[in-house]
Amino acid sequence: MSITPHDERFMAAAIRLSRWHLGRTATNPSVGCLIVRDGVIVGRAVTALSGRPHAETQALAEAGVLARGATAYVTLEPCSHHGKTPPCSEALIAYGVARVVISVTDPDPRVSGRGIAMLREAGIEVDAGVLEAEGRHSLAAYLTRQTKNRPYVTLKLAVSADGMIGRKGEGQVAITGPEARAQVQALRAETDAILVGIGTAIADDPLLTVRTPGLESQSPIRIVLDPSLALPLTSKLVATAREVSVIVVASEEMSPLSSDAEGLPPSALPGISPTGGEIGKERDPNSPAPDSNLSPSVNVAQGARPDLISPLVGEMPGRAEGGASTADMDSRRAALEAAGVEVVHCNPYHPEVLLPALATRGISSLLVEGGAKTARLFLEAGLVDRIQLYQAPVVIGGGGIESPLDATDIPSGFAHTGTLMFGEDRLDEYERGL
């Protein structure tokens, strides 16, 4: 059956629906599903919070007997494997759906093509690739974790008219207006984790939560690159660590297990244990794959440069090179952990190792918010997938902190995908192909 404008219209609606729970479905993708009978939507759903139930089973339950002979529009290929829940393909077959229209084929090797084959073997007509570009965009975080073994990374920068992102020694400086700041809150709400360098954490003392009324519970995990555990106990991040998770990434040399890891390159320390907070063992490739769709092992992220990224001088007040003793470091670690902060050990200058480690925890999307040196670190490593560049009419003047990029020097490989205005502030978005 050929694809019709009605198919595209219903798939566009399913894609819009899928965005409702971005950043809130744990390790599972946020999928949209519509059940349509005689041109009328009789069931609709998005993957539930925390990732289960899946969209298809919920939409089918809502449609009930009306699902028989209907068409299902699904943004991602229905699963075909038994995880913690039965396969969605089996549910579609059991309800008697006549046709399934899919936007994106699932790259998960447990599913890829198998869901489609299962449906066709049951006599169900299947059409795939409908509005695929739009579907891939909505599933970008999940697809990146599946195909590149790391989170999808968004770099957000707010730049003044004179090319600055702040002013030295003054903490947070408002560059954009309230409309743009509200949009950033929405971005945080649909992102799994947000990352800053220790210099920004100390200078700005940011909260990094979602402050839009009603969306506070969607605050992302907060990550600080902090080689020598310099994050002040009086900071807002530490003070709120028991309400919203905070992960501090310290150098391997700061680890109480560093003697066991002595001589190992960072690539030999690829996975953050979900319970222990240590970069350590790889997942056993012979163990059953979890329903979370995590990769069985961690490799260097695709597109990353394997060479060492130079230390971010000036981004890490209180570095251990100054002579902090092991006892001092143990004391700092204990104090942070007592306040609810999780301390993990991984070379902060190796994002090509850190990102796959975060992916093992089910983190599919990461927002890098600062500072300039941390932004440059990810850009130089080739590990930014999307750039959100806000440009404001504000002039910073003397003592400004220069932006690591502006609209005239966007790295090669990025395509300009759109411009939006928020009050007087302009947002330009650039993306790499998935």
Summarize the structure.
It contains 13 helices and 18 strands. With about 425 residues, it is of the alpha/beta class. Residues about 260-325 have low confidence and may be disordered.
- Characterize the biggest β-sheet: 9 strands, mixed
Helix fraction?
A: 25-40%
Count of discrete domains = 2
Mean pLDDT: 84
Q: Label the CATH architecture of the largest domain.
A: 3-Layer(aba) Sandwich
> Which structural class matches the secondary elements?
alpha/beta
Low-confidence stretches: 258-323
* Sheet with the most strands: spatial strand order: 13-10-9-8-14-6-15-18-17
Strand content: 15-25%
* N-to-C span: 28 Å
Number of strands: 18
Number of helices: 13
> What is the CATH H-level superfamily of the largest domain?
Dihydrofolate Reductase, subunit A
Tell me the overall shape: globular
Estimated radius of gyration: 23 Å
Q: Output the CATH class name of the largest domain.
A: Alpha Beta
